[in-house]
Design a protein that fits this description.
The protein has 554 residues and is an alpha+beta fold. It has a domain at 495-544. The protein is built from 16 helices and 13 strands. Strands 4-5-6-9-12-13 form a 6-stranded mixed β-sheet. The chain has a 3-stranded antiparallel β-sheet with strand order 1-3-2.
Length: 554
């Protein structure tokens, strides 16, 4: 299932009927007429000069590009002068623009993400359900389910046929019900690795021969991806459908969303206890599905699918391998030792003393002879040392260094999805939603209560501080000095000015007056002083005149 994202981009390209353009034609050497090299290294193969260049399902005899569609012009084919005759080869430019879009190494959007980039083996119907879920609500007028299914998957079937001609996809056999399986070739696997932006070593091996054994496990893995992803139909593409069809599609849109996008899923991921990621050694595990959807509250989740053929002892041995991998530590780029899984996936750091390993979800599909209820009970007992937490007085458990193990049934998962209360975590008595089961709700509730109590204590403390401040302010107002001149209370600045700042600081000349009265008092004192000085000068001048007399008195 590690190659589903790759195909849909190619589906759109090839289902439209586009063909790769011809480089050059030499009439003397027909073998020189080769296709442009494939984006993933497809070897160029000779083609006939008359091979179509544009839509093969549409007649282009009136198109300027028709000269490369039919017989060659006089003198043989020439190289397309697209820069000079850009307006003449608009369909061809559009095809190449689409081809560049398909092999853009940037993150793959969902409309391109439903082919074989994530699935190892898939049926055409499963590809359609992820790539174009709105088609599941079309063609309701067909008389039988087989005809409806055939009409809904016609474009995907044609596109896969084209991919098969290019050597990227091959038929993988048939299911007991008659559905044909499709899987990637090694060349297609390399193309999927480029499309996903992942190393080829992480893609696994092509799932050849899966159809010979019925492919029950790969099909169950595909069903689990669909049940967790829950793709929504595009209502704008169902505007012309009957009202009951639109209502059914609206119900699907209004249902709880799934986890992440298709790019959030990887399958058959090796979890090495020894060796490296690309060359794992013995003793490690292999996760059927790995989900990384931190935007939906699931930073990392391992999935193990069981068709009820394996015993509890076999599953316990697998869980031992998961624990061995989770406990493995390697040196990071900064020289410090970290868990190996943290060097590949991002997960928020847990709280000190409560850092569990990534959770493991076991999905039981009851098609085998074993009773899953019995197996689950035995498995919980056999693996208790791996998942049992430590009880604390606050009514919660802490799972530092433990592996959270969650179980559910495929039927319940398909019906309710990740938002339904159909998940049971080992050690807990009741079913929960997926987010609750892989988390620690009682610890979070305890922390929420502590935060609420702390916030209430802080509010009480702040209220007490405000009450004390109000009392101090009232006492200070009561002791505020009053101006002896006008009877008004001193301002804070005037009160501070009359207080002694130190033994060497100058003292205020009028400490019992406010600023206005002080200024008036100072002005009055200066005027009185000036008047006294003038009076004194006048008194000194009069005796002198009396003592000296005048010239008439002589």
């Amino acid at each position: 299932m590690e190659w589903l994202i790759f195909v849909v981009g190619n589906l759109k390209f090839l289902s439209e009927g586009y063909r790769l353009p011809i480089r050059k034609h030499d009439a003397a050497n027909p073998a020189s007429c080769r296709r442009r090299p494939h984006a993933v290294g497809t070897p160029a193969q000779p083609v006939r000069p008359a091979a179509p260049l544009v839509r093969s399902t549409q007649s282009l005899s009136s198109s300027p590009v028709a000269l490369h569609r039919g017989r060659p012009p006089a003198g043989g084919h020439h190289r397309l002068e697209r820069k000079r005759d850009r307006h003449r080869y608009r369909p061809l430019r559009r095809a190449w623009a689409l081809r560049r879009t398909l092999y853009d190494p940037r993150p793959v959007p969902l409309w391109r993400g439903g082919g074989f980039g994530v699935r190892k083996v898939a049926t055409v119907e499963q590809i359609q359900q992820i790539t174009a879920p709105h088609l599941s609500y079309r063609h309701t007028d067909k008389p039988t389910p087989s005809k409806r299914n055939q009409a809904r998957t016609a474009s995907h079937t044609g596109a896969l046929s084209d991919l098969r001609k290019h050597g990227l996809v091959e038929n993988g056999g048939q299911l007991p019900g008659g559905d044909r399986l499709r899987n990637l070739t090694p060349m297609g696997l390399k193309a999927a690795a480029r499309e996903l932006g992942r190393p080829v070593g992480e893609m696994g091996d092509p799932a050849r021969g899966a159809g010979r054994t019925g492919a029950s496990h790969p099909m169950t893995v595909n069903e689990a991806v669909l049940a967790l992803l829950r793709p929504k139909p595009d209502l704008s593409r169902l505007a012309s459908e009957p009202a009951d069809v639109r209502a059914a599609a609206q119900t699907a849109v209004d249902a709880p969303a799934g986890l992440g996008t298709l790019a959030s899923y990887a399958t058959e991921v090796a979890l090495p206890a020894t060796g490296t990621w690309s060359s794992p050694g013995r003793g490690g595990a292999q996760a059927d599905i790995v989900i990384t959807a931190p935007e939906d509250g699931v930073p990392l989740l391992f999935l193990e699918i069981d068709n009820c053929f394996e015993s509890a002892q076999v599953l316990a041995a697998k869980i031992d391998k998961y624990m061995r991998f989770c406990r493995r530590k390697v040196k990071d780029v900064d020289g410090t030792e970290r868990p190996m899984w943290r060097t590949r996936w991002w997960v928020p750091d847990g709280r000190h003393g409560d850092q569990p390993h990534p959770p493991l979800l076991l999905v039981f599909n009851r098609i085998g002879p074993r009773n899953p209820n019995t197996v689950i009970a035995q498995l919980a007992e056999l693996t208790q040392r791996h998942w049992q937490g430590h009880d604390y007085d606050g009514g919660f458990h802490m799972y530092d260094g433990k592996l959270p193990i969650v179980v559910t049934g495929m039927k319940q998962l398909k019906e309710h999805g990740p938002a339904g209360a159909v998940f049971r975590r080992f050690g807990r008595p009741h079913n929960q939603t997926l987010l609750e089961a892989i988390g620690n709700p009682r610890r979070e509730a305890h922390d929420a209560r502590q935060r609420a109590e702390y916030a209430a204590h802080q509010r009480e403390h702040q209220e007490e501080l405000r009450r004390i401040a109000a009392q101090e302010k009232a006492a200070r107002e009561a002791s505020r000095p009053v101006c002896a001149g006008c009877g008004t209370r001193f301002t804070d600045e005037r009160w501070k000015a009359i207080e002694s700042a130190g033994w060497d600081a100058p003292r205020d000349t009028h400490p019992h007056l406010c600023d206005d009265c002080k200024q008036r008092a100072i002005t009055a004192e200066r005027q009185a002083e000036q008047a006294g000085y003038e009076h004194q000068e006048h008194d000194q001048a009069v005796p002198e005149q009396k003592a000296g007399g005048t010239w008439l008195s002589r």
